[in-house]
Amino acid sequence: MVAAGNNKNGSEATQKSSRSNWRNYAVMAVGVVVVCGAAVVVGQFSRANEATTFEPPANAVGPTPTGEKLALPIRPTVPVTLTVYEDPRSPQSRTFAQQYSATFSQLLASGQAQINYRLVTQSDKTYGGSGAKEAAAAAACAQDQGRFRQFMDQVWANQPAPQQDGFKDRALLKKLAKKAGKIQHDTFDLCLDRDQRQGWVNKSQQDYANSGLGPVPVVQLNGQTLADPTTQLTPSKLAGLVSKEAQRVAAASPDTGADTPSPTATP
């Protein structure tokens, strides 16, 4: 009889222990779910915050009238600054970029000019969609690795028809980054996927929209807006204007020693 009682008591103790263990496991499982759910919410909030936070790409310059660094410089030198407004989705911007590419390269090589690129997204409003914004953000991610111009060359060479909004496809933008070469793809992909430059693109577009500059492309020479580069300006005329401005700046400078570039371009 004692043995039977012991067995009964042991069985009850085992059942109580089992129920206690299951309660502990249930509490632990709920805790894990809560922690995981919180992590997902925090991750989503973090990505949303990055998409709206204004964080300029590496080496961006400014300030603009509103104070932000919105221009992406190529080969900062002296004494002339060209500011070029382009829209990655705009066929007019593509034609301009390809037509003036050799002239820009010559001006950079001569040391006469630096080029500050301003990316805008007006075509998204014109055609609908988000391709210009996505491509501009991707170009800013490439700028972080010093490959802005090489990436934009691929954008112009592979620009879809604007009605198709092809640049909204981030897989395409990642392929273009690979074609651009010398881009660390994990870093680039993370920058793109986390929307790290979306806030900067928004600011750039807002500043352009408030400027009243008119349709892109737009070219400014030391802050002065030049004639329409698609109808009134030519690459040779631009080179001549840069040469003339370089001479003017050099003559006005108190230091006109041997380090001043010798202008070679002609109108």
Secondary structure elements and pairings:
Blueprint: H1 2-52, E1 72-74, E2 80-86, H2 91-110, E3 113-119, H3 122-127, H4 131-143, H5 148-157, H6 170-180, H7 185-193, H8 198-211, E4 218-221, E5 224-225, H9 235-252
Parallel strand pairs: 2-3
Antiparallel strand pairs: 1-3, 2-4, 4-5
The 3D shape can be described as: globular
**Helicity range of the residues?**
55-70%
Mean pLDDT: 84
Low-confidence runs: 1-8, 25-30, 32-36, 257-267
Q: Whole-Å distance between the termini?
A: 117 Å
Helix-strand string? HEEHEHHHHHHEEH
SS element count, helices:
9
Summarize the main sheet. Answer: 5 strands, mixed
Strand order in the sheet with the most strands = 1-3-2-4-5
> Based on helices, strands and strand pairing, what is the structural class?
alpha+beta
The proportion of strand residues reads 5-15%
| Beta-strand segment tally | 5
Rg, Cα atoms, Å: 29 Å
Brief overview:
With 267 residues, this protein is α+β, with helices and mostly antiparallel strands. 57% of the residues lie in helices and 9% in strands.
Task: Report on the architecture of this protein.
The chain contains nine helices and five strands. With 267 residues, the chain is of the alpha+beta class. A five-stranded mixed β-sheet has the order 1-3-2-4-5, with helices on both faces. It is globular and about 50 Å long. 34% of the residues are buried. Residues 1-8, 25-30, 32-36 and 257-267 have low confidence and may be disordered.
Question: What characteristics describe this protein?
Answer:
alpha+beta; globular; five-stranded mixed beta sheet
